[in-house]
Amino acid sequence: MAPLLWHSVGTISILLQEIISVYHSLHSPIPTLTDRVSNRVSDALVLFQCVAANPSTKMPFIEAKLPLYLYPLLNNTKKERPHQFIRLASLSVIGALAKVDDPNVINFLLESEVFPCCIRSMEVGDVLSKTVATYIVYKILINEEGLRYCCTVAERFFALVRVLGSMVLKLAEEGQLAKIPFIRLLKHIILCYHRLSESPRSCDGLRCCLPVILSDAAFIDIIRLGDPSAVHTCNSYFTMSATEPLEYKR
User: Record's family (predicted)?
Assistant: First the structure.
């Protein structure tokens, strides 16, 4: 389907017009984005996701700079349901690009400043949007250039650590940790912490900013019930964050 969408005359242009049509609603002081319009734009984004996920159309999609048209949707701070639908659909397109570990894709995402868009979505999105945004950040971090991008600028590093910690504390405060969607989010958060701990540059900062609850026995039991594999990742993170700074300082 993706090659047909990409090569059929005018189709991508029509989908793009549908997406751009909601820009005016993003900053309007009066709620103007209806469920109907939101669903229509989300449908267009689902087709974009199809193109972004296909190996034969992924790079042409990137080379045409089409993901840039989604960034205004991701920088939107409104939390009403129609906006959340569009946010999630937009993140799913970026997630489809990042799913395969392709350095060319990661370089494009870094150069086009998708990182702040993900941070914003982690701050204001619903649990599904937070999960996809955190997944994208993790896929960026497992690339060496992506890890370097995050850890070489203190402001960027602490923005990420702050929002990761904020999500953990909010999950704990709301008593949502035992529910499946929230466990998925928590797993991606832990994976991000673990990857950050592999950078000697970031270990001291992590040790200062780590939410105490992550080392709580009851908290670990909840993770074990939801996703046993995440417990190993969490334990590995604590081991690395405790030892790496000493090696770095020698």
Answer: Belongs to the CNOT9 family.
